[in-house]
Amino acid sequence: MGRIRVLSDNVANKIAAGEVVERPASVVKELLENSIDAGATEIRVEIENAGRRLIRIADNGCGMLRDDALLAFERHATSKLSDVKDLLSIATLGFRGEALPSIASVSRLVLETRAEEEQTGTRVEIAGGKMLNVEEIGQSRGTTITVRDLFFNVPARKKFLRSEQTELAHVASLVTHYSLAHPDKAFDLRDGARELLSVEPVADLRDRVFQVFGSGILEDLIRLEPTQRLFEVDPDEPAMPFALHGFVSRPQVQKNNRNSIYFFVNGRLIRDKLLLHALSAAYYNLMPGQSFPFALLFLDCDPQAVDVNVHPSKTEVRFRQQSFVHDFVRDAVREQLMESRPAPSFRASPVAQPAAQLPYSEFSQAMENVPVSAIEQAPPTIARAPVFTLQPQPGPAPHLDFYDASAAAPAQEPTGTLRLRVPDTHGSFPAGALSEGPSSLAGLGDLRPLGQLHESFILAAGRSGLWIIDQHVAHERILFEKVLVARSAGRVEVQQLLMPLILQLSPSQQIEYARIADELAANGFETEPFGNRTIAIKAAPAAIGPAELERVIYEILEIAEVEARRVSLDDLRRAIAASIACRAAIKINTHLDQSKMEYLLRELSKCEFPMACPHGRPVALEYSMKEILKAFHRI
Ligand code: ADP
Ligand code: MG
How would you list the strands of the sheet with 240-249, edge to edge? Predict the structure, then answer.
């Protein structure tokens, strides 16, 4: 008895069907998902001409019985689902039984497969949907599918394919992401003679990240230890666990788009607005609004908690417990960010990129231009211009560097640096001066202020090196946290204005004002409607000078307008606090005496999160002893 059956019309009609074969990468995606569903531990992908001429995927999974090998090419034939009920809890990547027939109808396809239970394998040959030949073959357990001449019989679709580099980038990005989701499996990707990815099974996701991106990236990432939270469905039913693990970047890693954010829900790579929002909420006030982190997040839950049957290419999901999932992800990421509190160092500057980071930065640059959304959703016409340069840069490396740290370009010296070894005749530095690893900002209180640079930056000496602290940003962070604490304790210091300040509001400001008047009051702004679209402000938080008050109010109303769409009171509170802090903080170009500098550093060290201002700019940079010694050629 075979494993595959044809779904009844009733089930088939409930499936979010759509054209699954849009480009070579979509073929690779479907075949890769099948191999993973088949329990393969080794998946080899071979393409030629970026998949136009050939795509071959070989796996060592469970294989197919002879009868199944034929049935698999019927529409809605699948071994993964049988009735409508199953649609509510899909644990496999595939479930529609559509991919193989769709691919076979637009290419010349050969399937070679053998299941454990059978002595001989089966070879099925199909072209343009017509079965040409079926025969017995010798074959080891597993499945190999070869797809040649994609779209040979649909010239219109072939025309829509982008340049070879773009198509190749999509395939490479896809295989890379699946390899990240399955560190325990071996993946191989080659285009012609060129090896693009080759990773052996590893025990830990960290090792896979290293295999794929090289060592440079690990310094920039924070590991999210597996965290779990239970959702209480109702008191009589068992609670539903949600688990999250992965990596997120330190806040100083700032990307200008979302393309370095990868979410996997139960092992499926998806694009999801809810999760994206949860992630940006986690970085809220740690990173400027228009910047995005790198994230590799795996959310696992009961298949019943998430509907994957909402989008033809299965790249979107719908959570049944939306706000629970949102808050869980936001809080879990935020907690880890808070815990690590690392100091940004000069390494963050774009001038001095250590060589080890090269593979990752090139990789991510290339990836940045290939939105995952474009791979999986957008019609080919929307895809961006080709930017993924697969040609090796001038130099000896004969293959792609992006994936292989050891193949990185020769160590890069900042231009103009002379490599002279100066004999060390001046004794050595105390042990500890060269301590490795990112310094923590927790030691800020022990720094000795040396003076100001341009009356804007505090220079300070510490055990681990020389620090530069942006005085405005530092004060902003201090005030921000104080305002938040005072707000939640209901102890805001308020000053009465001698004359009420009258402000004119636009219609939309008027609406926002009505919505947040209570929150304004709780933050120390005593306001009152004053005629048509006018308000009177009678008192304000003590920290804000009268000259700044008008700006603060308008700024808060503007933020409220944006926040209204996000409905989070918590985010609104933080935004208000950020606005107050920014207006009240000491400005740059302001002289500070020794005691003021000491005060700032001390208060900063007490902050929960001293590394960035509420808008995400860095507070302090460290020029480590090691870097100083290196620069002076002492090590
Ligand atoms: P779906 O994955 O939605 O079930 P497909 O058309 O992708 O539909 O595949 C049809 C069926 O063929 C699968 O349900 C599975 O039983 C079988 N199959 C496809 N690829 C493989 C493979 N690599 N190894 C074993 N079985 C496979
Ligand atoms: Mg499938």
Answer: 221-231, 240-249, 295-301, 261-265, 268-270
Task: Please report where in the chains the tokens 């010349």 appear, as a residue.
Answer: 108
Within a 10 A sphere around the Cβ of 430, how many other Cβ atoms? 8
**pLDDT tens digits for range 295-338:** 999 999 988 888 877 776 667 888 888 889 999 999 999 988 88
Task: Yes or no: say if 417 and 423 are a contact pair by the CB < 8 Å rule.
Answer: no
pLDDT tens for 406-415 read: 323 333 333 3
Alpha carbon distances (Å) from 85 to 11, 79, 89, 132, 202: 9, 15, 8, 36, 36
Residues 338, 331 contacting (CB under 8 angstroms):
no
CA–CA separation, 359 and 345 (whole Å): 20
What token pair was written down for 79? 């071994």
Tokens of 389: 């340069």
Map out the domains of the chain with their CATH numbers: 9-202 (3.30.565.10), 220-232+239-340 (3.30.230.10), 379-635 (3.30.1540.20)
Q: What would the two tokens of residue 264 be?
A: 């996997």
Distance CA 72, CA 6 (A): 9
Q: What are phi and psi of 357, to 5 degrees?
A: -85, -10
Residues facing 264 on adjacent strands: 269, 298
382 contacts: CB under 8 Å, gap ≥ 6:
374
SS3 82: coil
CA of 144 relative to ligand 1 center, distance in Å: 12
Ligand 1 interacting residues, C-beta cut-off 6 A: 3-4, 30, 34-35, 38, 59, 61-64, 72, 77-80, 94-100, 143
Statement: the pTM of the whole predicted model exceeds 0.90: no
Q: Is residue 615 a contact partner of residue 472, using CB atoms and an 8 Å limit?
A: no
Nearest listed ligand to the Cα of residue 74: 1
